[in-house]
Structures are given as structure tokens and as C-alpha cells.
Amino acid sequence: MRTPEHTLRFVATVTRGLPTLTRLTAALALTATVSGRAEVVSTLVEYKQADTVLEGLSVYDDAVIGKRPGVLIAHQWTGLGEHEKKRAEMLAGLGYNVFALDIYGRGIRPQTPQAAATEAAKYENDRALLRARVGAGLEVLTNHELTDPRRIAGIGYGLGGMAVLELARSGTCISGVVSFYGRLSSPAPPVAKNIRANVLVLCGIDDPYVPASEVATFKAEMVQAGVVWQVISYGGAVHRFSDRNAGSDGSTGSAYNERADRRSWEAMKQFLTQVFTNGFESAVGRP
After folding, report:
1. Whether the Cβ atoms of residue 209 and residue 121 lie closer than 8 Å to each other
2. Burial of 45 (0-12, 13-18, 19+ CB in 10 A)
3. What is the pLDDT of residues 232-244, one digit of tens each?
4. What residue numbers bound the domain in which 23 lies?
């Protein structure tokens, strides 16, 4: 169900620009109506990339009328799971049409770190296949009846962070991409010149899987290519800092960090608002 925060945000958006008294009256009526009947709707969606059957999750808030910006979510190395589903619901509550894609294939959800590492390596070592899987998910989101195709962004966690960066490096015309603790390395750095999206990278400063040297190389890649980009590093945070299932022992290299989770989510929200409200700031022709 919609939370009070979501209801207030929705009502404020709908009544923006109305005269004060009219806005107050409309807000009271909308709040009473929306609070009682609004639902976040989640539906499993089967689709294909080449001959591989994939299963993603479509999520939207039925209180929002008409087309809205779309957000694509790419999962971490354990496959599409509860973490991504929860984030999809949170984004839908903000008024976005969300599709959580499936990189691995229907039913492939590694249950151990060893199995997850093996599965993720297939795509880290085959960027063309990774791009194809993300592209298939993007097609589902773009073609959804509630998506405004002019306003689409991608976010990803871990492997998914790498995936949305690869989507941007492919030259796909979307508003922006956000990587949460994703690998930043590229087997072909010159392809960054193809990036047309705004780029936001959110990482833990103590993440052993995304070391400072890799972050520095990525920054140089973005500068060289003239991309509109930003990197935010969170002190005391390691890998999987936004995943409550990651435990609390930072010495393992992966752990949940409430402060980094909260701050990175706010940074992402601001980024999405900017690129969807003002249109994406093209790097083409920038001085």
C-alpha cells in the first residue's frame, strides 16, 4: 500500500500550479481518495533475449494517471531477488514505472557466493552478452503502456551497476544511469565516447571490489570522453552497502551501511528528478 509520504508527494505533484485555495481543496480530496485505494502493482513478465527465456518484474503505482518516467533496475550477482524487488516498489511509490530485469535467465538465482561469482563472471567477461540482456529489459520497459519513452533511466547494483554502465557505453539514448557499488572497469575505454546519458556512480570508499585505482581510472575515462558524470564515495562503506541482506561485518568486504544506503538513495532521487525534469544534459558539443 502507498505510504503517507508517497501520498503527499503524489498529491503535491498533481496539484502543482493551481491557485492556493483550489489547490488546498483538491489536495484534501485527492488525499482522502488516494490513501484509501492506491496500490503498488507488481507483475512477473516473461520475455526473451535471443533464445534465452528471462523473467523480470514490472512495478507501478496505480494511483498515478497516464504515462510516467521509466526506471530500469539491473540486479546484483545473486540474480533478481528481494533487494531489487523492494527498490522497485520504492521507485514505483515515487511515481515511476519500473522494470526489474533478469540478466541470468528464468530460474537462475545463485544460492551461494561461489555460484554467484561463477554466474556473474560469464557476463563480466562477455560485455556484448551483458549489453544484450540489459537491452532486452530496456525494450520491455520502453514498450510498456505506462512508460514515457522520452524519460527513461537505468540503475543497477553490483553486477547490475556494471550492466547499466555498459548500456550507456553502447550509446543507448536514455536520460541517465546510476551505478551502486558496480565494477567500473571497461575492456574498451574508448567506447565511453558513445555515452549520451548522464552518469552517477555511488560507491563505498573501502569497497575492496571497486578499489580506488579503478575509480580513478573510471574518472579519467569519463573526462577523456566528455561525459556528464559524477562519482560519490561514502566513507566507511564497503561493497553491497545498500543491501540489508549483506550483514554488518565490514571486514568481509561486503556489508550493509545504513548511512550510505540512505544518502545514496537520496542522491539517486535527486539525480532522477533532475534528468527527468530538465531533460538529459547532452555531452555532445560541450565546451
Report:
1. no
2. middle
3. 999 999 999 999 9
4. 1-38
Look at residue 55 and give its three-state secondary structure: strand
Whether the pTM exceeds 0.70: the reply is yes
Q: Same structural domain for residues 130 and 4?
A: no
Closest by Cα among 61, 53, 118, 122 to 95: 61
Q: Is 286 a domain residue?
A: no
Confidence of residue 285 (pLDDT cuts 50, 70, 90): very low
Q: Where are the beta strands (DSSP E) in the chain?
A: 40-49, 52-61, 68-74, 97-100, 147-157, 176-180, 198-204, 229-234
User: How many other CB atoms sit within 10 Å of the CB of residue 8?
Assistant: 15
Q: Are residues 27 and 163 in the same domain?
A: no
pLDDT tens-digit readout, 248-276: 999 999 999 999 999 999 999 999 999 99
> To 5 degrees, how large is the angle CA 24–CA 29–CA 34?
120
Residue 249: which CATH number? Answer: 3.40.50.1820
Residues 2 and 80 in one domain: no
8 with 150, same domain: the answer is: no
Q: What is the pLDDT of residues 212-237, one digit of tens each?
A: 999 999 999 999 999 999 999 999 99
Distance between CA 104 and CA 74 in Å, rounded?
A: 11
Check residue 235 and report its DSSP letter. T
Indicate whether 24 and 117 sit together in one domain. no
> 153 and 122: one domain?
yes
